[in-house]
Structure formats: C-alpha cells, structure tokens
Amino acid sequence: MTATVENVANALELEHVESHLHPEPSYDLAAHPVPSGLEEIWRFTPLKRLRGLFDGAASDAHLSWENDLPEGVTLGELSTEEAQALAVSAPFDRLGALAVANAGGAVLLDIPANAELDRPVRLTMRGAGADTLVWGHVVIRVGAHAKATVLVDHVGSATYDAFTQVVVGDGAKLDLVTLNDWEDDAVHTEQINLRAGRDSEVRVFEFSLGGDLVRTSLNVDYAGPGGSVDLLGVYFADAGQHIEHRQFVDHTAPKTRSNVEYKGALQGQDAHTVWIGNVLIRKVAEGIETFEQNDNLVLTDGAKADSVPNLEIETGDIAGAGHASTTGRFDDQHLFYLQSRGIEETEARRLVVHGFFNDIIRRIGVEDLQERLTSAIEDELATVVGRLES
Fold first, then answer.
1. Which of 214, 264, 297, 306 has the fewest CB atoms within 10 Å around its CB?
2. Non-local CB neighbours of 255 within 8 Å, separated by 6+ positions
C-alpha cells in the first residue's frame, strides 16, 4: 500500500534512518567535532587550505550583493531562529553549523505562491579579497505552484563559508543555478540543503570554474510524493585547484525521482577534482526512481580526479536505481573520427571538450549565461592547448 503524506511524516519522526556515509544533521556545533581528515566526509578535502575556517572566528564582513528581482520577488531578512524553524534539515557538518552560528541571521529570497516570473532572479555575490573572512546564511523560499529561475553568481575573492536552505512548495517548478567563478585565490565552502515539495520539479545546476579551493555539499530530501529533482554540474580545474562536489539525495517519500549528472575536466599539475554522490532510499520510499552519474576528462598529466558513487537501499520496491562513473583521457575514437575528416588535432580536442560539457550547459535555457560558460571553457582550453603545444 502506498504511504500517505501523514504516514511519511510520522515515519520520519518516529524512525530516523541514518545514512552510513553522512553524520546526523544538527545545528549544535558540539555535534560536529573539528575533523582530523580521516572522516569519510573529509578524507578528500585538504583541510590546511581552508584558512582556519574550522576555528570559527567571528567576522562582520559580508559579500556585496547586486540584485535583479522580477516583480513580486522580495529580498529580506530572517533571524537565525526563524531560519532554523523552516522545514529543511540542519547542517550535516561543522562548516555548515559554523555558517549558521556566525552569520548573524539569514538573507531571505522569497518567491510567492503561484508566481510565474518573466525573467530569472539574479543575485551576484562579490568578495573584496581573499583575506576577508565571510560567513553566509541564505534562505530561498519558493511558494506553491510558482515557476522561477534563480541565478546565484559568486565572483571576486573571499574566504567564504555558507549555509543555504531551499524550500520548494508543492507543485512548484524551480531552476536554481549557482556559478562559482571566483578569482584564483578564493576559498569557498557551502552546504545547500533543499526540500522538494509534493509534485514539485526542481533542477539545480552547479558550475565551478574559479577559486583556489571550492567545496560544496548539496543535500536533498522530499516533503511528499511526486517530487522530481535533477542535480546537474560542470567543473573545470586548472593547476593547483581543488574542486569538490558532494551530493546526498535522501528519498524520504514514495513515488519520488532524482537524477544526478556531473561532468568535469581537469588540467595542469596538482589539479584535483572530487565528486561524491550518495542516494539513500528509505523503507517508506516505495516506487522511487534514481540514477547518478559522474564523468571526468583528464586533459594533461599531473591531474587527479576522485569519483565515488554510492547507493543505500532500504526497500526493494523501487522503479529503478543505479549509478555510473568514468574517468579518462580524450576518446581516441572521437579524435580519430574528427581528424579523418580533415580537422586538425588541436581543433578536434576543442570540439570533443565542448561536446562533453554542452549536454549540460544547453539545458540552462538562459542564453547569456550559456554564452558566458562557453566562453570560460574556451579560455581554459586555450591554456591546455598551449601546454600541449609547448
């Protein structure tokens, strides 16, 4: 028998199913000890490069915000207590809890119920310098049956730790696009916790191109049956960069759907990318469908990609579940095909990389952003072509 919404809620209250790969969520700092680096959620992260974020030093600094808000959308403030009262899970790690404790309240982006926005919401967050320590707490609330696209753009430089809560109402449709286009010396860590309402449709795009170290953790659960979530990402790491993306999809309701698809390229000495995907299918989550995939393209020697997909299944009554991961160099067959038709090797390599990323970039549906991302990838490719020719 299919569980009702009330049964789902009661099951979650009475029986917490803990992921074997994620700690218990909590706002209490004491519940998240300072990591040693041996813990499962920290073993790939170079902790010494976090510039003392775990010390939790207070700071009054903020990123500067530039906003373009369609009619009806508001930007306001919440107290820390008001933000915590929202129906979204607490932080899964110490950095998330520190962001809440030190941000001094939350910024609220509010999209009203039934709104159909005529253009994307645009938020540009700009850092003043790598020596500036900034704590952030952001809440994005999308009302029932609203339709919206939200673009969050990180530029400049900072040492920035944030906790973002996203609440998507029943029947709503949200495209959330985050772009990490920092200067080369920035450190950015962020935890994004998203709750999808009943019969909602959510797509989250993550694009990470800049920064010295970028580590994001995207966690999803469901408020009721019928919710559909796609998590899509593109990242490009250059020499010395560490880019780490983690996703945890917690199927907390029946008849829900999730799809995770991230693509990365890396080049240069000590370029390091990390992708960790995990899907937890609870006993109550009957009839769900999920798949997660990560593909990495290693362009030069000296670069390293770690890719770890996981599935935790508590019920056998599911529509489908699977995962896949690939890491490799250029496909020789693709290059041979293009070169056999008179295309020079350098141009052939460029076309292969563009094709690799374009499958995700084209789905955004925001023309100027698609052009910006394509141009940024062109700039990265110009660097690798220079290395290959030298």
1. 306
2. 2, 225, 226, 286, 287, 288
